[in-house]
Automatic annotation (TrEMBL):
Residues 58-412 form the Amidohydrolase-related domain. Transmembrane segments: none annotated. It comes from Halobellus limi. Gene3D superfamilies: Metal-dependent hydrolases, Urease, subunit C, domain 1. This is Cytosine/adenosine deaminase.
Amino acid sequence: MTDLLVHDATVVTVNRENQILRNGSIRVTDGRITSVEPTESGDRTATADRVIDASGKVVIPGLIDAHRHTDFTLVQGLFSELDGSELLKEALALYHTAESVLGDSFFEAAWDLACLRQLTHGVTTVNAMDFTPELGAEAIGEAGLRGVIGPELADLLNPVSADEQLQAARRFVDSYHGNYDGRVTASIAPGGEVGCSRALWEGVAVLRAEYPELRLHTHLYDSAAADTMAAGSGADDPLDLLEQYGLLDERTLLTHLLHADRDDARRIAESGAHVLHCPTVYSYFQAGDQAWFPLPALQEFGANVVIGLDDPFWFDSWDLIQEAKHARLLSNFEYGAQQWSSYELLQMLTIDAARALGLDDQVGSLEPGKQADFVVIDVDTPRHQPYSNLPSVLMNSVTAGDIETVVVDGDVLMRNKSVESLDVERVHAAAMRERERLQAQTGWKTSLGGSTPPDISILRRISARPVLRAVNQYGHGVVHRYF
């Protein structure tokens, strides 16, 4: 018995043959794809628990956000007009205010809202690094989404000791890895060469040896002082730091690489590590002197480069398709046209990202035997018709507003833009309540015209902590996101 049948769709499989079916049908049983074939007349009258007539629609694999921080979903819009250094300092202070004053309900509402936004933007899998991973695992699991989540470890920029953070990470892995029918998995997520002491890296190496199946997810070279910070842990540079602890291989995910050079790109590619590129955040603030990351060298040496949206409070976006578009435009501006084709961008958001997360045997393409994670996009509108070169339409013209239906593990989470797996009113009510509490506790003012920080910076209204001393010592451009 077929649980779900989609017929008459243009199916972009992203399989090894790069196959696109003009009129295709997808059958799903027990959460797995059983067939992807041309539509036959009988498909239109076939019996299934759920049938989706996708005439005039395009079906692609579910989108994968390869790098995300989610704790601060509810501050979206507060920091958008600040310069980078002011934003960072206010964010650091605001996090500790929320942690100590607002409590779990603030972060629970943030995660639920994040899941709603990911779902409605066609993101079926997210790779997250956060300080509230337990809340995230439960929110993602209950929403029906797929997630790889790691507790962010950064003892130099966090008052909690390395041992305590590592123990908490081990508890998280033991409690949540493989939960929700395998949709939620754990990662090991040290913040990077800036925020981690030698003791923490030693503990990370031990933790990874205990859990060799987990991905290691970290920031690297997002600061001009990266080599200096790595030297503090006894290494020549950040890659040497990872190599010393046996942490640089095909299970390693390296985020940003803003200040990496051609030789770094070669070493990364040779190790098999994956690169998580977040283009908009750095073009929004242009952190540091270097404008872009070493894309041509990474391409030359064959590194797997995929795309993530990073923090929601930097530039207020949840649209991964638009992020891919920005990646191409900004890379073309920096290095010349034709850095990526449209189809390559689509692969980066699907099968390449799945490979980075070690999930390419489960998701990332539409093939028999894989989990049924896909989105249905409406292109049968005056805004898109007529068209040719479908990959170009998907990567240049489509936005998240065109996504109509979202399926994960064969379950329909959103149908005809109506969310089925979340109580939308409840999520919005909680978000509004917690956002109001946030503003009342911190003194932030908001209006339709913008937002205003407190008259007296909240940096002056919380007790001095190691994290703030670290920011003052190293300055903007060194610390990207560590709380």
